[in-house]
From TrEMBL:
InterPro entries: ABC_Transporter_SBP, ABC_transptr_periplasmic_BD, AdoCbi_amidolase, Vit_B12_bind_prot. The lineage of its organism: Bacteria, Pseudomonadati, Thermodesulfobacteriota, Desulfobacteria, Desulfobacterales. Residues 1-25 form the signal peptide. This is Fe/B12 periplasmic-binding domain-containing protein. It comes from Desulforapulum autotrophicum (strain ATCC 43914 / DSM 3382 / VKM B-1955 / HRM2) (Desulfobacterium autotrophicum). The keyword Signal applies. GO terms for biological process: cellular response to iron ion.
Length: 672
């Protein structure tokens, strides 16, 4: 053996010994409580009852190690089947125990749950966040625990890159005064993070000046005097923070600050605004671009040139396709992705965005990420389309482009075949921001498309067939949304969605044998509708993680129904006999049981039938609710109480939740 080979072998042996030593030694962690926690090996049956920790574990590539999560957790679509152990506030210790975890990740807010887990000798680890740096350290810690060091470094490098872009863009604005930004929190009161809270650090990194009042806790109530003195120029919140805005921002004094007068009130996903986690860099970009929307997109303030970064092939099996690729580019300083499909011969296309176009050699679908959403607003779309196509090295004159807010990593390619006919639908879809029900939802201004479909066949469609294909595609899409029970954004409680307000379609004419019909009674129309249906369902799964069968907590969330709201005027009855319990927690416990979850799911279906005017007699369901209520109570009851907190619900849902709450209250009163 030569000397070089010997050295290579020696290095390999040393690396193996190092890996074995590290594995044998295990990992020791001092958590937020000061507890020393030891791991001999990476956990294989971890339970996370902290959504931010769940997110980090998944993005480290360790989702397979999770044995259970809360229904508040956002999971990768492929892992959405994970067992639910309850919510963040009151997880079920019984369910946690039954899953036999090797560790449970907890929060300092879950003291009673931790005490119960300690009594069962179940290992817990608390990684609370007190600062931005602590959040970064938590990612590093979890990477060590799950032996995902390389993935951890990749995540942190991406976050650092996102932050660096914003720092560079803010440096370009040196002559501009920093804007006063108010993080709205609260439901019945106007509250904001105190000077101690890490949330202010995110505002500062986004270029804002936070209010940051002094206070002992992490959040403080804001007086009208403080509000007027600070005079916010931008207000942002998440989720039910809208309730405080609706209650206060039309009142004298509260409505007289710059942000309210100029309608600069923004809402972001709660999973981004309330934590330091793997998407924090992305959120800071989004927040900064929203605060300085016009200045950020002024050409003189651009930091990096528009450029193509990477490209990867996307297989599409149609003879007219020369090449198809997913291209990553940097445009207006933000990374964006485009599906680019090049044809072997120039094509005629029908685009719902641009109409009929001839001589087309490329069709494309472009993902415009939230930080870049202001790029096309208030401007003619033509220059924006030209800028995108030029950056990805395509000729705008011979291209047709769609734009979307759905990630291009989640596109689907669906083929349907019959004899010598092949239909291909390329779909991106997202339904959590602007889904609507046709004829019932209100129209607003332009936003990037949310369900985009590019249709190709191995036939040559006539103009008649191309236009009729639009209807077949739309019907297939709407059927998919109905079967998934996608809710309309402007009235999710009462309306199913039929699409989003910004859907677009491109139909490519093709080069094969002529086809003149694409309606529902033709084989071509059938294939088109089926391809659209399957493609939309799969794309929604990849983008939003939604399946036809999903847990009752998710479906309540989609309707903007919270257990805390439903239990608002009934907690005292439950707490009489169980000081450690709340009505919301009791409801959660019942809904973890399949029999009660199924009754709520029945109420969902009945509510939609009532709204459509298909059902006007609920006597049979009323009898079912009474039987359920008495079973929960453990004894007969004369009357189910009608609670004020359920009045906003459609009648079947109001009935079922009045029954659940009445049963819980009667059971506890019986024990007195």
């Amino acid at each position: 053996m030569n000397k070089k080979a010997s050295m290579t072998t020696l290095k390999a042996i040393i690396m193996v010994l190092i890996m074995v030593t590290t594995s044998t030694a295990g990992v020791d962690i001092t958590d937020s409580r000061g507890r020393q926690v030891h791991f001999d090996t990476p956990p294989m049956r971890a339970i996370s009852i902290v959504p931010s920790i769940t997110e980090i574990i998944c993005n480290l590539g360790a989702a397979e190690s999770l044995a259970g999560v809360t229904y508040h957790s956002s999971l990768p679509c492929q892992k959405s089947h994970k067992p639910i152990v309850g919510g963040f506030s009151s997880p079920s210790v019984e369910r946690i125990k039954a899953l036999n975890p090797d560790v449970v990740f907890v929060s300092g807010f879950q003291e009673k749950t931790v005490e119960q887990l300690d009594a069962l000798n179940i290992k817990t680890l608390c990684l609370d966040i007190t600062s931005y740096d602590q959040g970064i350290q938590n990612i590093e810690t979890l990477a060590r625990i799950f032996n995902r060091g390389k993935n951890g470094k990749t995540l942190l490098a991406a976050m650092e890159e996102d932050m660096a872009v914003i720092a560079e863009k803010l440096a370009k604005l040196d002559g501009m005064e920093r804007k006063r930004v108010f993080r709205l929190m609260g439901r019945d009161r106007v509250m904001t993070p105190t000077a101690n809270a890490f949330l202010n650090q995110l505002v500062i990194r986004a270029g804002g000046v936070p209010m940051a009042p002094e206070g002992d806790g992490m959040v403080a109530e804001v007086s009208l005097e403080q509000w007027q003195k600070f005079n916010p120029q931008v207000i942002f919140g998440c989720g039910e923070d809208r309730k405080a805005a609706e209650k206060y921002f039309n009142r004298p004094g509260w409505k007289d600050v710059d942000a309210v007068k100029n309608n600069r009130i923004l809402y972001f996903p709660c999973e981004m605004t309330c934590r330091v986690s793997t998407y924090t860099g992305y959120f800071v970009q989004w927040l900064a671009a929203s605060i300085y929307n016009e200045a950020f997109f002024t050409p003189g303030n651009q930091v990096h040139p528009d450029e193509l970064l990477t490209s990867e092939p996307i297989p599409i099996h149609q003879n007219l396709v020369k090449e198809s690729r997913r291209v990553t580019s940097r445009i207006a300083d933000f990374k964006q992705k485009t599906l680019v499909i090049d044809f072997t011969t120039p094509q005629e296309v029908l685009s719902t965005l641009e109409g009929f176009k001839t001589g087309i050699t490329t069709v494309a679908n472009h993902y415009l990420p939230p930080p870049a959403w202001n790029m096309p607003h208030g401007a003619d779309l033509a220059p924006v389309i030209s800028r995108i196509l030029t950056t990805v090295k395509r000729d705008p004159a011979s291209s047709a482009l769609l734009m979307t807010g759905a990630d291009m990593d989640h596109l689907t390619v669906t083929d349907k075949l019959y004899r010598d006919m092949t239909v291909t639908a390329v779909v991106t879809a997202g339904v959590c921001s602007n889904a609507q029900r046709a004829s019932r939802s209100t129209g607003y201004c332009y936003e990037p498309g949310t369900i985009n479909i590019i249709l190709m066949t191995n036939m040559r469609l006539s103009h008649r067939a191309m236009t009729r294909a639009i209807i077949s595609i739309t019907e297939g899409k709407s059927a998919a949304l109905a079967d998934l029970d996608i809710r309309s954004t402007d009235d999710p409680l009462n309306l199913q969605a039929t699409g989003t307000g910004t859907d677009n379609i491109i139909v490519v004419r093709g080069d094969g044998p002529p086809i003149d019909g694409a309606g529902g009674h033709t084989k071509m129309g059938e294939l088109i509708a089926k391809a659209a249906y399957d493609g939309v369902k799969q794309a929604i799964f990849l983008q939003n993680g939604l399946l036809t069968r999903r847990n009752v907590f998710q479906r309540l969330k989609e309707r903007n129904i919270t257990l805390q709201t439903l239990a608002k005027d009934s907690d005292c009855q439950c707490c009489k006999t169980r000081p450690d319990s709340t009505m919301a927690g009791e409801l959660e416990t019942l809904l973890l049981m399949p029999e009660y979850a199924a009754l709520v799911e029945q109420a969902f279906a009945l509510s939609d039938a009532v709204e459509r005017g298909q059902l006007n007699n609920l006597l049979a369901f009323s009898s079912t609710v009474k039987t359920m209520t008495e079973k929960i109570a453990g004894h007969p009851i004369e009357k189910i109480t009608a609670f004020e907190s359920t009045h906003f619900l459609p009648e079947p849902l109001e009935m079922i939740f009045n029954g659940l709450i009445s049963g819980i209250a009667a059971r506890h009163n019986m024990a007195m």
